[in-house]
Amino acid sequence: MFNKRSIILLACGLMLLQVATAQQKWTNAKAKEWYAQQGWLRGCNFQPSTAINQLEMFQPETFDTATISRELGWAQDLGLNVMRVYLHHLLWTADKEGFKKRLDTYLAISSRHGIKTLFVFFDDCWNDTAWVGKQPAPKTGVHNSGWVRDPGTMIYTHPDTLPVLEAYVKDVLQAFGKDERILMWDLYNEPGNNKQHNKSLPLLKKVFQWAREVNPSQPVTAGVWNNGPAFAELNRFQLENSDVITYHNYSYIDDHQHTIDTLKKYDRPLICTEYMARRNGSIFQLIMPLLKKENVGAINWGFVSGKTNTIYAWDTPMPGGTEPKLWFHDILRKDGTPFSEDEVAFIKKLCIR
């Protein structure tokens, strides 16, 4: 017979077993089986042309469903089937239920256009200060002048940030962790950027732990993006803990092929979640066929030119706001016309059978 103490110990043991099971990374076989069901993934990092950053995209006052639907319709016409979309925890803290409702609305729109979504939680790129409310106007000719990090350095100055971030990640994952409209979860974009280096490692480890505790049905990942020695520990953790290997590469085709060959040793599906910088030689006509041949998911940076100003290069502002002859990122103008007719024809030919 079990006495009361035995029952308590048994219950505790079962709870520990459940946590341990939930925290397991997918096996290689499971990851490959999942990937085989997706078909070749191709799409963009998506920000509607009317939003300068993640906050403006999903705030209730500026949540522009008409533009989102129109632009995702253009993506569907090109034969694209996935979009990578950034979130921000301040939107959740301001209005938890409203934020999740807007995410559901976005997913309803994207799924109508045959497009799955890869949501991104945290990000170490660009501006450190973020706020809820009216966002800044774009700086003329400046790439991503209004993009904001999440959480940024506030995690070091506000001790209550970490439990808020945990609650945010778990709530969103619990709400959408079995949603078939979501392809996967990108837990942390470019950890260590802005010279944060290993200062970002504790949050990177925490967000993987939180995701494993919720145990969504979709895979989780965090893409490697810099192979410099300062990122060695970050890269090691990302590669050892991602269900599916994701990475960024904005270089020419030889370098990109080398990246693919290097990552193949992990024997897991590969998805490139950022590429395509025309000035760098990372162009659709070279990189997309390579990714398709290697069965690597292809998600380029930028779709419709707008408030993010990503037609301008990272380090080459054009204060006069003249349109560069060679766009850095993006495919279409706000009216749906392409930067290059030949480029769009090439994408359609590769994506639509």
From TrEMBL:
Q: Name one GO molecular function term.
A: hydrolase activity, hydrolyzing O-glycosyl compounds
* Keyword set, alphabetical order: Glycosidase, Hydrolase, Signal
Q: In this protein, which residues make up the domain named Glycoside hydrolase family? A: 143-278
Which Gene3D superfamilies does its entry note?
Glycosidases
InterPro entries in the cross-refs: GH (IPR017853), Glyco_hydro_5 (IPR001547)
Question: Which domain of life does this protein belong to?
Answer: Bacteria
Query: From which source organism is this entry?
Result: Chitinophaga cymbidii
GO-annotated biological processes? polysaccharide catabolic process
The organism's taxonomy opens as: Bacteria, Pseudomonadati, Bacteroidota, Chitinophagia, Chitinophagales
Signal peptide bounds: 1-22
Hydrolase found in the keyword field = yes
This chain belongs to which protein, by name? Glycoside hydrolase family 5 domain-containing protein
Looking up SUPFAM superfamilies in the UniProt record yields: (Trans)glycosidases
Instruction: Keyword check for Amino-acid biosynthesis, yes or no.
Output: no
What family does this belong to?
Belongs to the glycosyl hydrolase 5 (cellulase A) family.
* Pfam families assigned: Cellulase
